Amino acid sequence: MKIEQVGAQLYTLRDHLKTPAQIADTLRRVRRIGYQAVQIAGLGPVESTELARILDDTGLVCCSTHENPATILDTPEAVAERLNILGCTYTAYPYPRDIDVGVFRNVRNLARSLSIAGRVLSESGKVLAYHNHDIEFMRVKNRTMLEIILAESDPRYLQMELDTHWVQAGGVDPATMCRRLKGRLPVLHMKDYAVTLDRRHVFAEIGSGNLDWPAIVREAEAAGASWFVIEQDDDWLDNDPFRSLRRSFQYVKDHLAE
Question: pTM of the full predicted structure?
Answer without folding.
Answer: 0.97
